Amino acid sequence: MDPTEFLQGSTVRISEETYAVCRTDHSHPAAFATVEDETETTVVVEHDDVGSVDASAVESGWKRLTFEMDLPFELVGFLATVATALAEADVSVFVLSSYTTDHVFVKENDLDAAVPQLEQLGCDVTN
Q1: What are all long-range contacts of 7-11, with beta carbons under 8 Å and residues at least 24 apart?
Q2: What is the pLDDT of residues 99-124, one digit of tens each?
Q3: CB of 114 closer than 8 Å to CB of 15
Q4: Residue range 76-104, pLDDT digits in tens
Q5: How far is the C-alpha of 39 from the C-alpha of 41, rounded, in Å?
């Protein structure tokens, strides 16, 4: 499977919400996502909820770009293709994957650089 074929005509939705990525010791009930590993817990919350998170570190100002498609597990290189295109525009990413799709977070002030890169890949980027 060719990842560029999946990107052609695909919809990428930009979240209305702005998010913060927080390092903490426990999950948070209002989190968009929680990642726990052996050393830390990371929660992604809407910016307005940051004050309710007992966080040791916070990185704010992220917009969520959701690829609105079902991505098969056999698809190799999808995120590499997206991340490479964004890296060419000097856009840093924070990525979360769900069972069927990927969410790429970019800094709000990088949206103007990120959107044209995704459109060049054939994506329809929308709010």
Answers
A1: 7/78, 7/81, 7/82, 7/121, 7/122, 7/123, 8/121, 8/122, 9/122, 9/124, 10/67, 10/68, 10/69, 10/122, 10/123, 10/124, 11/67, 11/68, 11/69, 11/123, 11/124, 11/126
A2: 999 999 999 999 999 999 999 999 99
A3: no
A4: 999 999 999 999 999 999 999 999 999 99
A5: 7
4, amino acid identity: T
For residue 108, which amino acid is it? E
How many Å apart are CA 64 and CA 78, to the nearest integer? 17
Q: Strand, coil or helix: what is 42?
A: strand
Alpha helices in the chain (DSSP H): 3-7, 78-88, 111-120
Closest to 14 (Cα-Cα) out of 112, 89, 86: 112
For residue 66 the two structure tokens come to 């959701």
Q: Which DSSP letter does residue 66 get?
A: E
